[in-house]
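Box 3.1. Reading complex inputs
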Amino acid sequence: AQSVSQHNHHVILSEAASLELGCNYSYGGTVNLFWYVQYPGQHLQLLLKYFSGDPLVKGIKGFEAEFIKSKFSFNLRKPSVQWSDTAEYFCAVGGTGGFKTIFGAGTRLFVKA
Amino acid sequence: DAGVIQSPRHEVTEMGQEVTLRCKPISGHDYLFWYRQTMMRGLELLIYFNNNVPIDDSGMPEDRFSAKMPNASFSTLKIQPSEPRDSAVYFCASSLKRDQPQHFGDGTRLSIL
Protein backbone atom coordinates (compact mmCIF):
# COMPACT_ATOMS: atom_id res chain seq x y z
CA ALA A 1 0.00 0.00 0.00
CA GLN A 2 1.11 3.54 -0.66
CA SER A 3 2.39 5.50 2.32
CA VAL A 4 4.06 8.76 3.26
CA SER A 5 6.50 9.08 6.11
CA GLN A 6 7.66 12.29 7.73
CA HIS A 7 10.67 11.66 9.89
CA ASN A 8 10.29 14.34 12.52
CA HIS A 9 7.11 15.03 14.45
CA HIS A 10 8.50 18.11 16.19
CA VAL A 11 11.36 20.42 15.27
CA ILE A 12 12.57 23.40 17.28
CA LEU A 13 14.94 25.90 15.68
CA SER A 14 16.25 29.35 16.41
CA GLU A 15 15.70 32.14 13.92
CA ALA A 16 18.19 32.14 11.03
CA ALA A 17 18.86 28.42 11.41
CA SER A 18 18.58 26.22 8.34
CA LEU A 19 15.65 23.84 8.00
CA GLU A 20 15.31 20.46 6.40
CA LEU A 21 12.20 18.33 6.88
CA GLY A 22 12.27 14.80 5.61
CA CYS A 23 9.58 13.09 3.58
CA ASN A 24 9.69 9.60 2.09
CA TYR A 25 6.99 7.77 0.22
CA SER A 26 6.37 4.29 -1.02
CA TYR A 27 4.87 3.97 -4.48
CA GLY A 28 6.37 2.42 -7.57
CA GLY A 29 4.75 4.61 -10.16
CA THR A 30 4.91 8.24 -11.22
CA VAL A 31 3.98 10.64 -8.46
CA ASN A 32 2.95 14.21 -7.87
CA LEU A 33 4.46 15.60 -4.68
CA PHE A 34 3.29 18.41 -2.44
CA TRP A 35 4.20 20.28 0.69
CA TYR A 36 1.44 22.06 2.57
CA VAL A 37 1.77 24.42 5.52
CA GLN A 38 -0.76 24.99 8.29
CA TYR A 39 -0.21 28.09 10.41
CA PRO A 40 -1.70 28.03 13.92
CA GLY A 41 -5.46 28.14 13.77
CA GLN A 42 -5.59 28.17 9.98
CA HIS A 43 -6.25 25.76 7.15
CA LEU A 44 -3.68 23.93 5.06
CA GLN A 45 -2.16 25.93 2.23
CA LEU A 46 -0.04 24.72 -0.66
CA LEU A 47 3.62 25.57 -0.18
CA LEU A 48 5.03 23.97 -3.31
CA LYS A 49 4.45 21.11 -5.71
CA TYR A 50 6.37 18.84 -8.04
CA PHE A 51 4.83 17.22 -11.09
CA SER A 52 7.77 16.75 -13.46
CA GLY A 53 10.90 18.43 -14.76
CA ASP A 54 13.54 20.03 -12.56
CA PRO A 55 13.61 18.00 -9.33
CA LEU A 56 14.48 21.11 -7.35
CA VAL A 57 11.27 22.98 -6.78
CA LYS A 58 10.98 26.48 -5.39
CA GLY A 59 7.89 27.52 -3.51
CA ILE A 60 6.60 30.50 -1.63
CA LYS A 61 8.33 32.23 1.28
CA GLY A 62 11.79 31.00 0.39
CA PHE A 63 11.03 27.29 0.70
CA GLU A 64 12.32 24.71 -1.72
CA ALA A 65 12.14 20.94 -2.02
CA GLU A 66 14.19 18.37 -3.85
CA PHE A 67 12.75 15.24 -5.40
CA ILE A 68 15.22 12.35 -5.32
CA LYS A 69 13.56 9.54 -7.21
CA SER A 70 16.10 6.89 -6.26
CA LYS A 71 15.48 7.60 -2.58
CA PHE A 72 11.72 8.11 -2.87
CA SER A 73 12.22 11.36 -1.03
CA PHE A 74 10.94 14.91 -1.26
CA ASN A 75 12.63 16.89 1.51
CA LEU A 76 11.66 20.46 2.31
CA ARG A 77 14.37 23.04 2.93
CA LYS A 78 14.78 26.67 3.86
CA PRO A 79 18.20 28.24 4.38
CA SER A 80 17.15 30.65 7.13
CA VAL A 81 13.92 30.28 9.08
CA GLN A 82 11.93 33.09 10.65
CA TRP A 83 9.68 33.15 13.67
CA SER A 84 6.72 33.43 11.28
CA ASP A 85 7.56 29.99 9.85
CA THR A 86 6.23 28.42 13.03
CA ALA A 87 3.58 26.05 11.67
CA GLU A 88 2.83 22.43 10.88
CA TYR A 89 4.16 21.10 7.59
CA PHE A 90 2.57 18.24 5.68
CA CYS A 91 4.08 16.24 2.86
CA ALA A 92 1.58 14.71 0.43
CA VAL A 93 1.88 12.28 -2.45
CA GLY A 94 -0.54 11.72 -5.29
CA GLY A 95 -0.09 8.97 -7.82
CA THR A 96 -0.64 9.95 -11.43
CA GLY A 97 -1.85 6.41 -11.87
CA GLY A 98 -4.84 7.48 -9.89
CA PHE A 99 -4.48 6.65 -6.24
CA LYS A 100 -5.80 9.27 -3.89
CA THR A 101 -3.44 11.83 -2.44
CA ILE A 102 -2.00 10.69 0.87
CA PHE A 103 -0.84 13.09 3.55
CA GLY A 104 1.98 12.47 5.97
CA ALA A 105 1.48 12.80 9.70
CA GLY A 106 2.89 16.32 9.72
CA THR A 107 5.91 17.99 11.32
CA ARG A 108 5.38 20.74 13.85
CA LEU A 109 8.03 23.42 13.51
CA PHE A 110 8.59 25.93 16.27
CA VAL A 111 10.99 28.78 15.60
CA LYS A 112 12.35 30.63 18.60
CA ALA A 113 12.72 34.36 18.18
CA ASP B 1 -11.91 34.32 -6.47
CA ALA B 2 -13.78 32.56 -3.68
CA GLY B 3 -12.07 29.62 -2.09
CA VAL B 4 -13.64 26.62 -0.41
CA ILE B 5 -16.33 27.82 1.96
CA GLN B 6 -17.29 25.88 5.06
CA SER B 7 -19.99 26.51 7.61
CA PRO B 8 -20.33 26.81 10.47
CA ARG B 9 -16.85 27.85 11.63
CA HIS B 10 -17.57 26.65 15.14
CA GLU B 11 -20.15 24.25 16.48
CA VAL B 12 -20.72 23.32 20.08
CA THR B 13 -23.43 20.83 20.87
CA GLU B 14 -24.35 18.14 23.33
CA MET B 15 -23.75 14.50 22.71
CA GLY B 16 -26.58 12.71 21.00
CA GLN B 17 -27.46 15.67 18.82
CA GLU B 18 -27.28 15.65 15.05
CA VAL B 19 -24.51 17.76 13.54
CA THR B 20 -24.40 18.92 9.93
CA LEU B 21 -21.31 20.45 8.41
CA ARG B 22 -21.48 22.22 5.06
CA CYS B 23 -19.05 22.83 2.26
CA LYS B 24 -19.07 24.75 -0.99
CA PRO B 25 -16.14 23.76 -3.21
CA ILE B 26 -14.38 25.96 -5.71
CA SER B 27 -16.42 26.21 -8.89
CA GLY B 28 -15.16 23.85 -11.57
CA HIS B 29 -13.37 21.51 -9.20
CA ASP B 30 -14.29 17.89 -9.86
CA TYR B 31 -13.09 16.47 -6.54
CA LEU B 32 -14.24 17.18 -3.02
CA PHE B 33 -12.63 15.80 0.13
CA TRP B 34 -13.66 15.70 3.78
CA TYR B 35 -10.91 15.48 6.41
CA ARG B 36 -10.86 15.31 10.18
CA GLN B 37 -7.95 16.69 12.18
CA THR B 38 -7.19 15.91 15.82
CA MET B 39 -4.09 16.14 17.94
CA MET B 40 -4.05 12.41 18.48
CA ARG B 41 -4.72 11.17 14.97
CA GLY B 42 -3.54 14.03 12.78
CA LEU B 43 -5.20 14.64 9.41
CA GLU B 44 -7.50 11.83 8.32
CA LEU B 45 -9.30 11.55 5.00
CA LEU B 46 -12.90 10.59 5.66
CA ILE B 47 -14.41 10.48 2.19
CA TYR B 48 -14.01 11.99 -1.23
CA PHE B 49 -16.29 12.63 -4.19
CA ASN B 50 -15.71 12.85 -7.91
CA ASN B 51 -18.37 14.70 -9.88
CA ASN B 52 -20.72 14.43 -6.91
CA VAL B 53 -20.31 10.65 -6.62
CA PRO B 54 -18.69 9.18 -3.47
CA ILE B 55 -15.56 7.31 -4.54
CA ASP B 56 -13.90 6.22 -1.33
CA ASP B 57 -15.57 6.32 2.08
CA SER B 58 -13.19 3.91 3.77
CA GLY B 59 -12.11 6.63 6.17
CA MET B 60 -15.58 7.22 7.57
CA PRO B 61 -15.24 6.04 11.15
CA GLU B 62 -18.72 4.67 11.79
CA ASP B 63 -22.24 4.47 10.51
CA ARG B 64 -22.97 7.56 12.54
CA PHE B 65 -21.11 9.50 9.86
CA SER B 66 -22.63 10.17 6.45
CA ALA B 67 -21.76 12.50 3.60
CA LYS B 68 -23.66 13.67 0.58
CA MET B 69 -23.02 15.82 -2.43
CA PRO B 70 -26.37 16.60 -4.05
CA ASN B 71 -24.80 18.91 -6.63
CA ALA B 72 -21.45 20.24 -7.77
CA SER B 73 -21.54 23.24 -5.45
CA PHE B 74 -22.57 21.73 -2.13
CA SER B 75 -21.68 18.90 0.19
CA THR B 76 -22.65 17.95 3.73
CA LEU B 77 -21.07 15.80 6.40
CA LYS B 78 -23.54 14.62 9.01
CA ILE B 79 -22.95 12.99 12.36
CA GLN B 80 -25.93 11.40 14.06
CA PRO B 81 -25.83 10.83 16.97
CA SER B 82 -22.75 12.83 17.90
CA GLU B 83 -20.32 11.73 20.61
CA PRO B 84 -17.58 13.60 22.52
CA ARG B 85 -14.88 11.68 20.63
CA ASP B 86 -16.11 13.29 17.42
CA SER B 87 -14.72 16.61 18.63
CA ALA B 88 -12.20 17.77 16.02
CA VAL B 89 -11.62 20.23 13.24
CA TYR B 90 -13.29 19.10 10.03
CA PHE B 91 -11.85 20.36 6.77
CA CYS B 92 -13.34 20.30 3.33
CA ALA B 93 -11.05 20.55 0.32
CA SER B 94 -11.51 20.55 -3.43
CA SER B 95 -9.29 20.02 -6.43
CA LEU B 96 -9.53 20.08 -10.20
CA LYS B 97 -8.33 16.50 -10.54
CA ARG B 98 -7.50 13.82 -7.99
CA ASP B 99 -3.74 14.34 -8.21
CA GLN B 100 -3.85 18.14 -8.36
CA PRO B 101 -3.26 20.44 -5.37
CA GLN B 102 -6.13 20.55 -2.92
CA HIS B 103 -7.62 23.81 -1.75
CA PHE B 104 -8.78 23.71 1.84
CA GLY B 105 -11.56 25.56 3.55
CA ASP B 106 -11.12 27.25 6.92
CA GLY B 107 -12.56 24.23 8.71
CA THR B 108 -15.32 23.67 11.24
CA ARG B 109 -14.20 23.36 14.83
CA LEU B 110 -16.63 20.89 16.38
CA SER B 111 -16.99 20.38 20.11
CA ILE B 112 -19.31 17.71 21.44
CA LEU B 113 -20.01 18.08 25.14
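In summary: DSSP finds no helices and eleven strands in chain B.
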